[in-house]
Amino acid sequence: MRKLIECVPNFSEGRDLGIIKQITDEIETVEGVRLLNVDPGKATNRTVVTFVGEPENVIEAAFRAIKKAGELIDMSKHTGEHPRMGATDVCPLIPISNISMEEVAEYARLLAGRVGKELLIPVYLYEYAQTNKNRNNLSIIRAGEYEGFFKKIKHPEWAPDFGPTEFDAKRGGTVIGARDFLIAYNVNLNTTSVRRANSIAFDVREAGRVMREGDPVNGKIITDEHGKARSIPGTLKSVKAIGWYIEEYGIAQISMNLTNIEVTPLHKAFDEVCKKADARGIRVTGSELVGLIPLKSLLDAGRYFLAKQQRSAGVSEKELLRIAIKSMGLDELGPFKPEERIIEYLLKDKADSKLVSLSLSDFADETASESPAPGGGSISAYAGVLGASLATMVANLSSHKKGWDERWEEFSDWAEKGEHYKNELLKLVDKDTIAFNRIMEAFALPKGSDEEKMARTAAIQSATKFAIEVPFNVMKLAYQSMEVVKAMADTGNPNSVTDAGVAALCARTAVIGAFLNVKINAGGFLDKAFVEKVLTEGAALQQMTIDSESEILAIVNSKIG
Q1: Quick one: which of 175, 173, 135, 174 has its CA closest to 156?
Q2: Looking at per-residue confidence, does 510 or 228 come out higher?
Q3: Which of 1, 31, 470, 530 has the fewest CB atoms within 10 Å, i.e. is most exposed?
């Protein structure tokens, strides 16, 4: 279980691709670091880079990138729409897997200390890496921007956390920290007015707008008993927003940072901006994602927009993404390629989906070849996939059946269940072949010394257990999918009842075929208690599947006469 963190440095260069390439080349010199995305912006003159890896490798890559950016970028000549204070303006570290925020914050401090000491760049800590809560907010740290920091850094309360208290005219200052996952997101407007865009931004952002007497723009600011300006909160929690004009596109945008996508998801932010823009006579024409996004955010958006149409959300992942992209106009300003913008897709190991990525004919050819894998295990899993797919199809047809409009949500729920079983079984198609290959690799290990023999035996047993568990999981999922199959045979669109019948036959084949693989692999496993448990449960699953198939076919035959 590797510890993985993400680093998303923002460099103050978005126009010279040669400079950007030199910086990202430095990142790629570090072994074990994977560069996921490079997103330059001409108008902002800023590039957002995303890379992941184990913590020590990531902070080494970040250090090299910060060093190179300082060599190549001259902040005294920099112009751009985005607030900034340095060549590497901000460098956040984000926990991805098997690591706590506290640990990530400590790595951010280590990186900041090294940048300050070795590169002599003033460094400020922010978010979870900053213990002083009066200066942990990025916008507060960056207030005054590059031009104002020559004076600001001299104030004792704004002494950097690391590095010299002299502001570097060429490289500026850098902010390094640890934070939760953040989505940088811009909504496009059919106006060129920054003032109107800002009004919408103030409507939605959590901080809202300053409270004024009379005129909301020029009126006297209302303060509290301590002389602090009062504010009217915006409608979206965990959202920062400003309005700006992007000359490259000839439009104004609402530029947002969604700092907690569980509190305010992408689709909610988009719809709220649409609502506030419409109230001001302005239209939203689309939107723009900066950097990367988790798969769940777009899938949730797809489900949300389908639900607004009262249509089934039990469709493929690809279709949910298409609905999300079109609904929010993510492709208005340029192509939106999910394989390049979704974190999980960029981290995916292609070996995990080698078989399911093949065409039907290529899959058949691969199965028919002289190679022993894919074999019966993978085919059993795929039979389960086909069964779950047919059941999902019946649910979707039922959801959209004329005259059944009031039942769309009922069938949408069934379709989503079917999609879940289909997707989980799809993963096992390749996993069964991977299990077979692991056994072959274990048997190929050397067996000369006693130590080698012990290691070989342990590897064989580990691989064999995996080869038992994979088809056993196929059995469980295929049997569970029959819940959807039976419901569709019983209450689904009657014109598709035979499809439900075929789905039952596929699920039965998946369970019985997978059990054959469980039994043959169990013969070589030394843990007899484990073997007995699996075989007992497997036999019960098989019988329950056969019984369920009989019930479903009885329903089907009664309906078709």
Answers
A1: 135
A2: 510
A3: 1
Q: What are the structure tokens assigned to 54, written together?
A: 């184990």
What pLDDT digit, counting tens, does each position of 466-490 carry? 999 999 999 999 999 999 999 999 9
Q: How buried is 120 (Cβ within 10 angstroms: 0-12 exposed, 13-18 middle, 19+ buried)? A: middle
Q: Count Cα atoms within 13 angstroms, Cβ side, for 23.
A: 34
Q: Which of 312, 347, 382 is a domain's end point?
A: 347
Rounded Cα gap, residues 336 and 327, in angstroms:
13
Phi, psi torsion values for 232, nearest 5 degrees: -105, 115
Q: Which helix (H) or strand (E) holds 244?
A: strand 239-246
Q: Which two tokens stand for residue 182?
A: 């953040």
Q: How confident is the model at residue 1, as a pLDDT? A: 63
Dump the DSSP string for 132-161.
Answer: -GGG--HHHHHTTHHHHHHHHTTSGGG--S
Name the residue type at position 396: N
Within this chain, do residues 550 and 479 fall inside the same structural domain, yes or no? yes
CATH code for position 140: 3.30.990.10
Q: What domain range includes position 274?
A: 183-347
| Catalytic option among 168, 430, 432, 499 | 432
Mark whether 74 and 199 lie in a shared domain.
Answer: no
Tokens of 152: 């600001």
Q: Are residues 98 and 211 part of one domain?
A: no
Count of domains in the chain?
Answer: 3
Closest by CA to 438, choosing from 418, 471, 466, 410, is 466
Chain centroid to CA 169: 38
**Do 218 and 168 belong together in one domain?**
no
245 and 363 inside one domain: no
pLDDT interval class at 561 (50, 70, 90): confident
Coil, strand, or helix at residue 324?
A: helix
Integer Cα distance of 271 and 441 in angstroms: 53
Q: Residue 84, CB half-sphere, CA atoms under 13 Å: how many? A: 28
Domain CATH code at residue 451? 1.20.120.680
**Catalytic-residue membership of 82:** yes
- The residue annotated as part of the active site, out of 39, 82, 89, 499, is 82
Which residue carries 């006579």 as its tokens?
Answer: 281
Of 120, 149, 178, the residue at which a domain comes to its end is 178
Task: Tell me whether residue 400 is one of the annotated catalytic residues.
Answer: no
> Is the same domain home to 152 and 243?
no
Q: Are residues 340 and 367 in the same domain?
A: no
CA dist list (Å): 472 to 131, 481, 555 = 50, 14, 28
Average pLDDT of the residues in 449-477: 95
Average pLDDT of the chain is 94
Asked if 272 contacts 228 with a C-beta cutoff of 8 angstroms, the reply is no
Instruction: Note the helical H segments in 400-449.
Output: 408-443
Binning pLDDT at 50, 70 and 90, where does residue 365 land?
very high
Give the Cα separation of 83 and 199 in Å (integer). 19
SS3 175: strand
Instruction: Please tell me whether residues 262 and 404 are part of one structural domain.
Output: no
